[in-house]
Amino acid sequence: TPFPGPPPAPVLGNLLQLPTTKVWERLNEWGLTYGPIYQIHLFSTPLLVLNTAEAAREVLDAKSVLYSNRPLPKIIEMTGFDKGVVLEHDPLRLRQARKLLHLVLQPRQLSYYRAVLEHHVNVLLHNCLHEPDGFVEHIRHLTAGIAMEISHGHRVTSRDDPFVKKANVFADNFAEASLPNNHIVDWLPFLANFPGWLPGMGFKEKARRYREQYWSLAEEGHQMVKDDIAKGLARPSLTYKALVEGKPGEVPDDVIAFTATQVYTGGADTTVSTLSSFILFMVKHPEVQRKAQEEVDRVIGSDRLSSFADRESLPYVDALTAEVLRLRPPVSVVTREAGQDDTHNGYLVEKGTIILVNFWGMLRAEEHYPDPHSFKPERWLGKDHSDPTHPFNVAFGFGRRHVSCPGQHLAEELVFTTVARILALFDIAPIKDEHGVSVIPSDDSTNGGITFPVPFRCSIQPRSARARDVLEGLEHEL
Ligand code: HEM
């Protein structure tokens, strides 16, 4: 017998019971009724929902060979976004792509980029001083700058950088094509012929445009590095290392070009999401902000800015970042596919079953996170990073070696450094309306493959005259 789950309707299955936005919330509610692993149907295709971290480890870690396949949604195939790494389903190309990522993202390699990272963080701080309302744009500029350095050795200085502009178009296209509520429909192959869901020619035209933009971006980036190499100007990057240090022809050029391009998809928006959520939580939880600022002041003082090496001596700041990631995991759900029939806990999982890994739900499991919807950094004080319930061990994915996030070390370093430096120098607060009353932003987040807080305004001001001097002194970073 298959896993139990909410009873499906004839023909449509559970389709009409799924909301069109934020499916993860409904998946989580069902988990409370049907348990940590349950099955739903869309039309005749079974989907297995993994709603706790334990369930994900039992299935995706312990049986990684059976469950590491990625489904190939029709629209993803049409746009060519499956070429690269994030949705690459060809095992050989995926292996090659992940090897390339490790050339730059392993902790040992990352230390090379530390100065680059701190430079871009300081640019963000300086930009927030002069144009606080544009904080989301500054965060985007930060993550784009770091991703471009790592993928192509491209130093982003101008906010109008044409390469970043094109990459943003691609990232938006990618997010749109992989929206989870389209996902479920798209990833059932026969639905590609279902006119009600995929409006005919308009849709095909869009896929063609996405494809063209993606391919030209990948080619342009690749050529840029080749030109830099020829001129002796290339800086160490994924593309440079693959071209110069790898054996010639070992990895096809298009694998290099698409993988480098997808560093941007994997790395830029996820971190934008986390840092924007951090700002939001600071607006809403002034007492947490004061506590974290007090820790930074006491431990680091005002003679220098903190860096990643300070993480252990700033446990409250570290706990704060963990709690942001728990309540606002940038990626709410990912999918896998069962490669063969399997029997799990006595239930049958048929080959071809789509696996929905519900990070959002698993990070709100009441048995691990009492009062799960509240923002409480203290829950992480004294908890080791190796704790299996720690958000750093959940929000970056499961499935040993094959499929979890290769950018985790970079993300942890970037998020910590940025958060600690912002706390040292700025006060973040609600804006006031015309009557002097604080305007508290909404808790809501957007729908999508990567979710963000819905746009909000807040006040970001230097904490003191001395903080202002430090920020002014960062001018030379620009
Ligand atoms: C807070 C920040 C981040 C979070 C929460 C996050 C989370 C994730 C998750 C959940 C996945 C999917 C894993 C799976 O399919 O099971 C993923 C994949 C990926 N991430 Fe991250 N990520 C973050 C930052 C980054 C950064 C900074 C980079 C690189 C610069 C990066 C690069 C990638 C890539 C390339 C993949 C695709 C890997 C593959 O599918 O084989 N990520 N990430």
UniProtKB/TrEMBL annotation:
Organism domain of life: Eukaryota
GO molecular function: heme binding; iron ion binding; monooxygenase activity; oxidoreductase activity, acting on paired donors, with incorporation or reduction of molecular oxygen
Bilayer topology: Single-pass membrane protein
Amino acids binding heme: C405
Cofactors named for this entry: heme
Keywords linked to the UniProt accession: Heme, Iron, Membrane, Metal-binding, Monooxygenase, Oxidoreductase, Signal, Transmembrane, Transmembrane helix
GO cellular component: membrane
Pfam families: p450 (PF00067)
Cellular localization per UniProt: Membrane
Pathway it works in: Secondary metabolite biosynthesis
Principal location: membrane
Family: Belongs to the cytochrome P450 family.
Protein name: Cytochrome P450
Native organism: Dichomitus squalens
Organism phylogeny: Eukaryota, Fungi, Dikarya, Basidiomycota, Agaricomycotina
